[in-house]
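The material for today's practical consists of a large collection of protein records. An example says more than a description, so a record of this kind follows:
***
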Amino acid sequence: MTNRIKTLVRLKEEDKTILRKLAAYYDVSESDAVKIAVKHLAKELGLLSS
């Protein structure tokens, strides 16, 4: 059993398009692109130490 948290994220259509393009460019899934974006934002806001 894993400790996964399900989260619903509402995005504008242009944001979805950007994430799809990033996922295709880096050859990752769209969900991975969202995870990367969230982690990047958390780092910028100082919520992550590494």
About this structure: The helical segments are 13-26, 30-44. The mean pLDDT is 89.
